[in-house]
Amino acid sequence: xxxxxxxxxxxxxxxxxxxxxxxxxxxxxxxxxxxxxxxxxxxxxxxxxxxxxxxxxxxxxxxxxxxxxxxxxxxxxxxxxxxxxxxxxxxxxxxxxxxxxxxxxxxxxxxxxxxxxxxxxxxxxxxxxxxxxxxxxxxxxxxxxxxxxxxxxxxxxxxxxxxxxxxxxxxxxxxxxxxxxxxxxxxxxxxxxxxx
Length: 196
What we know:
alpha+beta; Peptide Deformylase; five-stranded antiparallel beta sheet; two-stranded parallel sheet; metal-binding; peptide deformylase activity; EC 3.5.1.88
């Protein structure tokens, strides 16, 4: 089932998400719905807060990046078929040089800005079967993981921008929270109901 994506301005996007247990109700169904929602919106990652749940789950599928001719063959191979579920994740370390890449977010449509992130990330998490993993990722895979991880920490990519950039997009962000944006996927707007 395709779920509406929560728009910028909803308090759930600023909450630090809670861990879940293996007994979390209908977990398999939730993950299927999250993947379906992400694909319908043409995203490469989706975190539970983006569908209104303040729980520590996010998923990624970087397959769309595998088609990017600007990336090296090695990078494209790494991104091909990189589809994972991260439950109760904790980033253990971020290393390597910071590098800029233009990021967007399904909760913040029509805004794309350069964000600086570390090259490599080491993360501990549980998969969809509640098997524990500690793994290290680099490049775009690391970036997608860092972006989605920020969501379960209550951080948006716009929080990482300079104060000047934040001022420049303030009006756009206000419009998104009021529902004044054209997204080609279902969204839930925090202010749209109050404005009526």
